[in-house]
Recover the amino acids of this structure.
């Protein structure tokens, strides 16, 4: 746990970042260029575009679907991060495990640099 | 650069799928060392930002567009293993919900736009951090350069995969030239967005930028020693 001023500052930063992401997720599709992307364009020029199979998705990019997808990605990635942290406590072979520690031990903050 | 179903044959798609599963498995283990109370909330946000930014196609010359891939950015912010998890989440949702990228090509897309851009981006950033002056202010530049490099490398890897399992018989030299040409331009956009995003976070909370942490640790030591217990007087401008 870090000190109180630090935490609130983190909270503000995360809130600000979330606001930016929501605006981006809602607005990106409106501003986006509709030209084919790099690979699509190359496949047209080089004559293999016809080998690609297009399909229909449940959602298509628009302001609402953009936010829906973004929220889903956020939840999934946060969940994966939780799973990755939990595994530290549950004795994954080959890794340094925390003996008897709760998987999500808040005081346990390894700071290894690569 | 989302690869649809049909560009690559089944054996190649199976191989990239297996490679992607292995990489995500390794990332789940590796991310444990990167995630702490401060960085864990960042993982969700970084993935969400990459997803949102990937919708924003920007024009890159005559009738072509590109978008952020985001691997170098994610690696700079949360570290390479967590970044691979973030990127894989993005491609999974794009593939299943938006039909953006083929289902059989999901592994290919994770490997090309996720693992490759993260690995190349992280590697370039680490090398630059090593050779450039140890200043936090240089981190956005390093991230930008890393992002710039990561995009054409991913494009070249697509060409390599196409050489192995492409379903059409086309001259590979021309394919490589075309892919690298377009993706160098897209890399410029990637560099700009990455440098801007990293610079914004460095400005408010440099400790939340993973690649900057060793530099910060060094800086804290430099400041604290003269100003602290030992009365050296140098630099203690309080």
């Amino acid at each position: 746990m870090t000190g109180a001023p630090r935490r609130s500052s983190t909270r503000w930063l995360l809130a600000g970042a979330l606001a930016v992401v929501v605006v981006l997720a809602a607005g990106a599709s409106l501003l986006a260029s509709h030209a084919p992307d790099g690979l699509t364009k190359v496949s047209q020029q080089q004559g293999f575009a016809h080998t690609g199979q297009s399909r229909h998705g449940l959602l298509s990019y628009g302001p609402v679907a953009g936010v829906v997808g973004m929220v889903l990605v956020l939840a999934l990635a946060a969940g994966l991060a939780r799973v990755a942290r939990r595994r530290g406590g549950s004795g994954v072979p080959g890794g340094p495990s925390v003996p008897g520690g709760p998987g999500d031990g808040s005081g346990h903050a390894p700071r290894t640099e690569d | 650069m989302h690869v649809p179903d049909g560009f690559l044959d089944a054996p190649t798609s199976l191989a990239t799928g297996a490679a992607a599963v292995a990489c995500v498995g390794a990332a789940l283990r590796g991310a444990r060392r990167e995630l702490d109370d401060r960085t864990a909330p960042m993982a969700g946000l970084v993935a969400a930002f990459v997803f949102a930014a990937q919708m924003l196609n920007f024009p890159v010359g005559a009738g072509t567009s590109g978008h952020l891939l985001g691997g170098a950015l994610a690696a700079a912010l949360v570290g390479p293993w967590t970044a691979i998890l973030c990127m894989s989440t993005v491609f999974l949702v794009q593939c299943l919900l938006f039909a953006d990228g083929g289902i059989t090509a999901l592994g290919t897309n994770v490997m090309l736009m996720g693992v490759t851009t993260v690995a190349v981006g992280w590697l370039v950033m680490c090398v630059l951090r090593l050779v450039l002056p140890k200043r936090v202010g240089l981190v956005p530049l390093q991230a930008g350069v890393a992002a710039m490099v990561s995009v054409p490398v991913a494009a070249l890897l697509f060409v390599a995969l196409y050489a192995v399992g492409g379903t059409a018989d086309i001259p590979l030299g021309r394919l490589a030239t075309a892919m690298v040409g377009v993706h160098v331009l897209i890399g410029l956009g990637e560099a700009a967005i990455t440098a801007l995003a990293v610079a914004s976070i460095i400005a408010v909370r440099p400790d939340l930028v993973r690649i900057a942490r060793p530099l910060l640790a060094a800086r804290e030591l430099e400041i604290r020693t003269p100003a602290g217990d030992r009365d050296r007087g140098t630099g203690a401008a309080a």
About this structure: Chain B touches chain A through 81 residues (CB under 8 Å). Chain B has one domain: 10-227.
